Amino acid sequence: MSSPTPRMVPLAPPYPPEIQDQFDRIMRGAPPLVLFRVMAGHTRAWDKFRAGGLLDPGPLSLRAREIVIDRTCALNRCEYEWSVHVAIFAAPAALTEEEVRATVQGDATSSCWSPAEQALIAAVDALHHRATFTDEEFAALSAHYDEAQILEIMLLCGFYRTVSYLANGLKLPLEEKAARFPVYV
Question: What is this structure's pTM?
Answer without folding.
Answer: 0.92
